[in-house]
Write a structure and sequence with these properties.
By secondary structure, the protein is an alpha+beta fold. It folds into 2 domains: 49 residues, no CATH class; 70 residues, no CATH class. The protein contains 3 helices and 7 strands, in the order βααββββββα. The strands form 2 sheets. A 4-stranded antiparallel β-sheet has the order 1-2-3-4. The protein has a 3-stranded antiparallel β-sheet with strand order 5-6-7, with no helix packed on it. α1 packs antiparallel against α2.
Amino acid sequence: MDSGPVVIRLPRTSYLVVIFLFFACFTVGFGARGSHGLRDSTGGSGFDVGPQTLVFAVPLLVAIFIARTATVVSTAGLTVRALFGSRTLRWDEIRGLTVSGRAVYAVVDGGAIRLPCVRIAHLGPISRISAGRLPELPDATPKPAPQRQRARRQPTQ
């Protein structure tokens, strides 16, 4: 049963960062040149549009980064998408996967290529999609956060 390629990307909640950056850019992008933000002598609104409005490119680039950055896993291989460009690795090119910290790398003849957005929990599904080209790995078992137990107060005597 082929369910098609699996796309591993940043969570959609990452776009909240873009919204916060956009609103933060208003003070720099449309701020008055004067230190007090007063209207100029010509009766303008107190906002200047000039080269400082290029700061709005920052949230735009962050949004493009979130939308583009991904790893696509299919039966043909891996496709690594970055902000500028992408690279496709066929399964016969990949010698294995390695983990360094929280990052996962595909080992090829020329070195290692970082797989963006891939974490250790994704290794099981990736090995199954590879159809035996990678060693079979079990799915990661979720570990619940440790619960704090309230310190029981003992009656003082």
